[in-house]
Amino acid sequence: MKPVALLIALSLPALADWKTEVTPAKLGPHPKLAPQEFDYRLSWNGMVDAGKLTFTFGKQDPKFPSDFVSRVTGGSTGVASKLYKNDIAVISRLDPATLKPRACVGVQDEGKEVVTTRSTWAGTQVSSEHVTRVAKTGAETKVDSQFLFTPVHDVFSAMLHVRSHKLANGDKLVLPLMPFNRPYLARIEVLGREKFANRDTIKLSVSLQKIEPKTKTLLPYKKMKSTTLWLSDDANRIPVELRSEVFIGDVRMTLSGARKL
Predict the structure, then answer these.
(1) For 210-244, b where at least 16 C-beta lie within 10 A, e where not — what string?
(2) Fewer beta carbons within 10 angstroms: which end of the chain, N or C?
(3) Phi and psi angles of residue 164, each rounded to the nearest 5 degrees, phi first
(4) Domain-located, residue 164
(5) pLDDT score at 10
C-alpha cells in the first residue's frame, strides 16, 4: 500500500469514532429545571449591545398539554440590527419524562429573507422542512432533509441534558445536534469551577463540527473558532455567560434576568 493510501486508510476509523463517543440520551442525577424564564443580553466584546434573547422552559401551553415546551425569542437590536438583522423565534416540544425532542419550529427573520424550519423526531430519524421566503417578492424555496441517527438533540434538549449530568471537573459530553436543518456534533468539556460574575460557576468549553448527513463524516465548522460557557453552580445550572469567537468577532450572551413561572 502506498504511503498516502495508508494514511487515508488509517484515518478512516478515526472519522467514525465519534459515533461510539456519543453520550447516551439519559438524564443525569441533577434535578430537572423548574419552569422558569431567563433574559440574556447579546454583545460584541462585552461592550457593544447587539441584541436580546429570552429563554422560557416548561411554561404550560394549552396547545401542547403533554409536552415540556421550551422557547427562545429575540434578536439583534440597535446598531447591530442595522448591520445584520436577525430576529428569531423557536418553539421546541420535548418529552416531559426524558426531555428528548419531539418537534421543533424555528423562524429567522433576516430582513431580506425569512427562514422557517420545521423538524420532527421519530425513532432514529430527524426530518426537516426548510422554507426560505424572499420578503420583497414572497417567492419561496423549500428543502426537505433527513438525518438517520440517534440520539439527536435540539438546542433545548441539549441544554437540559448537559445540566442534568454530574459535570465533575474533566467530564466530557458528546452530543449530536439538529439546531435547524443540519446536524452538528458538540463536544463539551468541564474545565473546572470558578467565581464568575459574582457567582459560583461551572466552566465549560464547547466545540462544534458539522456532520455530513449521508456519510456521517465530520467536517470543520469555520464560523465558530472557540466557545466558553459558564453555568451557575447551583440547583438551576443555567448559562451565566457564553463567549464565542466567531467569524464576526467576540460575541457574548450574558444573563440579565430570571423569573420563576
Answers:
(1) ebebeebebeeeeebeebbbbbbbeebbbbbbbbb
(2) N
(3) -80, -20
(4) yes
(5) 42
User: What is 107-122 written as a DSSP string?
Assistant: EEE-SSEEEEEEEEEE
One-letter-per-residue 3-state SS of 162-193: HHHCCCCCCCEEEEEECCCCCCEEEEEEEEEE
Residue whose C-alpha cell reads 472519522 in the numeric block: 15
Q: Give domain status of residue 2, yes or no.
A: no
Q: Do residues 116 and 107 make contact, with C-beta atoms less than 8 angstroms apart?
A: yes
Question: pLDDT category, 250, cuts 50, 70, 90?
Answer: confident
Q: Which residue has the cell 420545521?
A: 118
**Count of domains forming the chain:** 1
Residue 218 domain boundaries: 17-256
**71 is a domain residue:** yes
**H/E run at residue 217:** none
Cα separation, 19 vs 150, whole angstroms: 10
> Looking at the predicted structure, is the pLDDT value of residue 21 above 80?
yes
Instruction: Express each pLDDT in 127-173 by its tens digit.
Output: 999 999 999 999 999 999 999 999 999 999 999 999 999 999 999 99
Within a domain: 106: yes
Q: Could you tell me the three cell numbers for 136?
A: 420583497
The amino acid occupying position 86 is N
CA distance 226 to 89: 25
Cα 95 to its chain centre, rounded Å, is 17
7: amino acid identity, one letter = L
| Spatial CB neighbours of 179, under 8 Å, sequence gap ≥ 6 | 154, 155
